[in-house]
Amino acid sequence: MTMRISTKGDYATRALLSLALRQSPASVRDIAESTGLPQAYLEQIMLAMKAAGLVDARRGVQGGYSLSRPASEITLKEIVEAAEGSVAPLGCAAVEPDTSCIEEGECALQLVWIRVRGAVSDILGGVTLQDVADQTRKIKASRLRKKPGLVLTPVSEASA
Question: Angle between the 76-84 and 7-20 helix axes, to the nearest 10 degrees?
């Protein structure tokens, strides 16, 4: 079984990571060029990120998108949920257990899918854009030194 974050969620995380790695606002074109993402689709995603309060947009020559809060305060869960809604693997897992399941019995599988949703939510909620930006910088530096890759440590483990 393959469970996936959609292209929209993937592109949203990559676009906001691009902003986290910058020191100044970036246009959609700049983000598209640095990430290799399609500009037209990215424009829609950035509007959704703005509507969710994750980015600010400024017009003009010095304008563009920037993070609305420090990268250390934005989790991957917030980004994915802003792009996709719930991180539930199936529609029935997007709600709490009830007796409205139309499957045989009361659909005990719903409880499993809700646990999966919770696990994914916990993992994404434990990783900030700053964590990913820091790891990205380490990986780039590692590649320059030709050392093996590094493993991302969630905030909860790094501070323990």
Answer: 140
pLDDT in tens, 104-133: 545 777 777 778 888 888 999 999 999 999
Quick one: the chain helix, strand, coil %, rounded to 5? 55, 5, 40
Question: Dihedrals φ, ψ of 60, to 5°?
Answer: 105, 180
Say if residues 94 and 156 touch (Cβ distance below 8 Å).
no
> What digits encode the pLDDT tens for the residues 34-87?
999 999 999 999 999 999 999 999 988 888 999 999 999 999 999 999 998 877
- Cβ contact 123:80 at 8 Å: no
Helix (H) or strand (E) holding 115: helix 109-125
Domain boundaries along the sequence of the chain: 7-85
Entry pTM: 0.79
Q: Please answer whether residues 12 and 80 qualify as being in contact, where contact means their C-beta atoms are separated by less than 8 angstroms.
A: yes
CATH 1.10.10.10 matches 7-85: yes
